[in-house]
Amino acid sequence: MLPFLCSFIEQSPSISRHLSNIPLLFLSEDLFKKKLAFISKAAIFSNNEKLNLYIYFFPSTYVFYGQISPNFFMLSIFNQPTPLYTDTKKTLIRYFWVGCFIALFLIIFQPFGTANVKMDYKNLFLSGYGILSFLVFSMVFIGLPRLFPSIIIEEKWVVWKQILLLITALSLTLLACYIYQAVWFGWKISFFSFWSFFITVIPISIFPCVMVAMLDYIYQLQKHQTVANNFNQQAKPQATNTTTLLHFKDENDKLDFVLPLDQLIFIKAANNYVEINYLENEHIKKYLLRNSIRNIESQLTYPSIKRCHRSYLVNMDKAARITGNAQGYKIHFPFTVDFVVPVSRAKGKELLAILQS
Predict the structure, then answer these.
(1) Are 345 and 352 contacting, i.e. CB atoms less than 8 angstroms apart?
(2) Residue 44 backbone zone (phi > 0: left; psi -120 to 50: alpha; other: beta)
């Protein structure tokens, strides 16, 4: 619960001045000083009607006051953004090691009564479960995002979806393992015998799936937030080029739009168009140009314009700060809170180096 609570506090969207008198939680100062030293009085999730939570600092204790439903923290965790791992090579490597772990675990500990089974090639048979786990998990995590690209997308990927995908892969793995052992021993395959096998194993296996998703979320969240906070403390203002003009051409290679570099904020892909967002007279304006983001990137060969995401080009000179969540980083601008540009995991380190230079 502690890492979850710290994460929520760090992502506080607003400060509320209303007070409540129901004590919720008392934690020592030593336990929280690294995470909450900057807080003297704050409220988190004050935009949620079901929650009013406040933090007050006393000489030795942080006292949390408020009204909260018992399951709020867990429900909130399940709806937090989390990474969707779609890289084929990394997925194969990840689940290869998962398969090795499962095979070694079964060989060494021999759970589910396998220790009492006497048979030839027993270790080879048990290794087969690890191989099947590797194959099924890899197919699920590589294949399903490609079969359902409009449903399984990172922009809408949250913890509960990751858990559901893990349980789907687990269930299919158990089906494959049931068929495997039935074929090996020459058993008759039936729904009832599979169901007996399934309900024996699934309760034990779901907990690791949930914990893996939760721990990965917490690790990625804390890593990205730490890097973002460190960067924001060390960030230097960027010099702006006021003379360079950007010439935008359409898909037919005809000049369509001219803009000073110092006015460009970011460019976003919009189907067969790109959306050019720029600053004019302290107002953000948009211009639609028929072309692809890749073609526009090849036209704008300027050091400050970088591809930060498959759908975005950003003028790094306009970036004011970054924030981090479990999925990665987001770029913020000093003149607006309405526009936030995501940074893909592949581009994160490169852009941070540019911003810090």
Answers:
(1) no
(2) beta
Give Cα 221 to chain centroid, integer Å.
Answer: 8
pLDDT in the model for residue 154: 84
Of the candidates 351, 344, 308, 306, the residue with the CA atom closest to the CA atom of residue 328: 344
Q: Report which secondary-structure segment, H or E, holds 332.
A: strand 328-333
Please name the residue that has the structure tokens 């995991």: 345
- For residue 38, the model assigns a pLDDT of 38
Beta bridge partners of 25: 64
Cβ atoms of residues 341 and 287 within 8 Å? no
CA neighbours within 13 Å on the CB side: how many for 258? 4
pLDDT averaged over the chain? Answer: 78
- Give the model's confidence band at 88: pLDDT under 50 very low, under 70 low, under 90 confident, else very high: very high
3-state secondary structure of 275: strand
Q: Which two tokens stand for residue 353?
A: 């180096």
DSSP letters, 289-348, are EES-HHHHHHH---TTEEEEETTEEEEGGG--EEEEETTEEEEEETTEEEEEEEE-GGGH
CA 215 to chain centre: 12
pLDDT, position 255: 87
User: How confident is residue 288, by pLDDT bands cut at 50, 70 and 90?
Assistant: very high
Please say if the pLDDT value at position 45 is more than 90. no
CA–CA distances in Å: residue 103 to residues 64, 100, 134: 46, 5, 10
92-147 pLDDT, tens digit each: 999 999 999 999 999 998 887 788 878 888 999 999 999 999 999 999 999 999 99
**Domains of the chain, each with CATH number or no CATH:** 2-78 (no CATH), 88-231 (no CATH), 245-356 (2.40.50.1020)
Tokens encoding 294? 């890749």
Determine the Cα–Cα distance for residues 58 and 53; give it in Å rounded to an integer: 16
Q: What are phi and psi of 81, to 5 degrees?
A: -65, 140
Residue 52 to residue 17: CA distance in whole angstroms: 10
Q: Which class for 295: exposed (0-12), middle (13-18), buried (19 or more C-beta within 10 A)?
A: middle
